[in-house]
């Protein structure tokens, strides 16, 4: 087998080796069924056990209250940009959006197709390098939407935004779901593509308050109604069975790490080390403002595009892959989600340090 390298990809992202090995074993036969996980009917007993276990683990790890449904959908987080307004917003009604990056802009664009969007805050003035401290909400928004972690710009809400009482809070948590403990009861909907913190691409996890499920219009296309999926335990049609299986393995791995509080400590330690290095570096600097920095996506630059390129080339040669930043920020981005090993962060810091020394005159 080719040696595995450190994969800093923003998503799909690296998975724990133990998860990959278990998936590999069950490709040929899930347990002793003689049928591989890819081949099991989604209506059969073997797959149902996998499905139920994944739901139960999300409920357990996230301490999800009984008045919330847990759904597995397809279409990525991007489909949720549309499904949320289609289910919660009627023409003429207003929803408030906190605009902190490209993904929240995309969510706004889809909501505008359905109703009125009020931008309660925006950090576009400084290229989304910070999380605004204040929001101006509209009189009675149907819901407030925010992106808890901005994958491209390397910023993250340190905590949930304060919003008007009794308005549902809707969160795109695609790039930080289950990276730290959260109080689900503060949310109306939490949604995330699984492919960063929770498993493979192809499955979107949704935690949604039951009264919001019930609220959706019944004349909406069947597959776009939350109730369709909630009523059938995400088995109205064929779900992404393999994705849900690997999601379940990833949740078991998270539980074995000690749950969300324990994984949060690991994530803080990994990101903390990297920011500490960047803050004392004479060559590299973090692009996100202090107080808004993401523990998941650490974005940084030298300030000289040619040097950034030289660094990226060297990193690739030395087995540190996926570090190129998004074109709207440039430079580098280290995505260090739940499954990313601490040893990879150490290897990156060693390389940054060595590169800095060999380019001392450029600093
Ligand atoms: C914060 C955030 N929201 C939404 C998306 C889009 O997710 P998907 O590709 O699952 O539609 C991404 C993808 O990177 C993301 O980082």
Question: Can you walk me through this structure?
Answer:
With 363 residues, this protein is an alpha/beta fold. It folds into 2 domains: 17-257, Aspartate Aminotransferase, domain 2 (3-Layer(aba) Sandwich), CATH 3.40.640.10; 259-362, Aspartate Aminotransferase, domain 1 (Alpha-Beta Complex), CATH 3.90.1150. The chain has 10 helices and 14 strands. The protein has helices spanning 17-28, 45-61, 76-88, 102-112, 210-215, 226-231, 241-257, 260-280, 305-317, 342-358; strands spanning 6-7, 68-73, 94-99, 116-122, 144-147, 149-150, 155-156, 169-172, 189-193, 204-209, 285-286, 297-301, 320-321, 332-335. The strands form 4 sheets. A 7-stranded mixed sheet has the order 2-10-9-8-5-3-4, with helices on both faces. α1 (17-28) crosses α7 (241-257) and α8 (260-280) runs parallel beside α10 (342-358). It is globular and about 65 Å long. The structure holds pyridoxal-5'-phosphate (PLP).
CATH topology of the largest domain: Aspartate Aminotransferase, domain 2
Biggest β-sheet strands, sense, barrel:
7 strands, mixed
Please report the distance between the alpha carbons of the first and last residues: 40 Å
CATH superfamily of the largest domain: Type I PLP-dependent aspartate aminotransferase-like (Major domain)
Task: Say how many strands there are.
Answer: 14
Query: How much of the polypeptide forms β-strand, as a percent range?
Result: 15-25%
Give the CATH architecture of the largest domain: 3-Layer(aba) Sandwich
Taken in chain order, the helices and strands follow as: EHHEHEHEEEEEEEHHHHEEHEEH
Give the C-level CATH assignment of the largest domain.
Alpha Beta
Radius of gyration: 21 Å
Report the helical percentage. 25-40%
The coarse silhouette is: globular
**Count of DSSP-assigned helices:** 10
Number of domains: 2
Strand order of the largest sheet: 2-10-9-8-5-3-4
Spans of at least 5 consecutive residues whose pLDDT stays below 50 are none
């Amino acid at each position: 087998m080719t040696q595995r390298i450190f994969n800093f990809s923003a998503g799909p992202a690296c998975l724990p080796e133990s998860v990959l090995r278990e998936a590999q074993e069950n490709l040929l036969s899930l347990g002793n069924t003689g049928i591989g996980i890819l081949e099991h009917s989604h209506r059969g007993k073997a797959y149902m056990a996998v499905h139920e276990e994944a739901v139960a683990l999300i409920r357990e790890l996230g301490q999800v209250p009984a008045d919330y449904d847990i759904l597995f959908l397809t279409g990525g987080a991007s489909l949720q940009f549309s499904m949320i307004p289609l289910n919660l917003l009627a023409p003429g009604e207003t929803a408030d959006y906190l605009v902190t990056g490209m993904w929240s802009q995309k969510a706004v664009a889809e909501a505008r197709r359905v109703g009125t969007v009020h931008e309660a805050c925006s950090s576009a003035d400084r290229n989304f390098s910070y999380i605004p401290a204040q929001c101006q909400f509209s009189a009675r928004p149907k819901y407030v939407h925010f992106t808890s972690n901005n994958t491209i710009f390397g910023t993250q809400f340190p905590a949930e935004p304060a919003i008007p009482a009794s308005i549902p809070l809707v969160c795109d948590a695609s790039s930080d779901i289950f990276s730290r403990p959260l109080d689900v009861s503060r949310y109306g909907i939490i949604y995330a593509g699984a492919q960063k913190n929770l498993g493979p691409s192809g499955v979107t996890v949704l935690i949604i308050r039951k009264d919001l499920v019930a609220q959706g219009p019944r004349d909406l296309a069947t597959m776009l109604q939350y109730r369709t999926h909630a009523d059938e335990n995400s088995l109205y049609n064929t779900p992404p069975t393999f994705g849900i299986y690997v999601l379940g393995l990833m949740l078991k791995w998270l539980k074995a790490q000690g749950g969300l509080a324990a994984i949060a400590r690991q994530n803080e330690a990994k990101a903390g080390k990297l920011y500490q290095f960047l803050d004392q570096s004479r060559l590299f600097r973090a692009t996100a403002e202090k107080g808004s920095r993401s523990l998941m996506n650490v974005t940084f630059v030298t300030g000289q595009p040619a040097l950034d390129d030289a660094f990226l080339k060297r990193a690739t040669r030395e087995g540190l892959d996926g570090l190129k930043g998004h074109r709207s920020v440039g430079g580098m981005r280290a995505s260090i989600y739940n499954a990313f090993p601490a040893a990879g962060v150490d290897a990156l810091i060693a390389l940054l340090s060595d590169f800095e020394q060999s380019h001392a005159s450029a600093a």
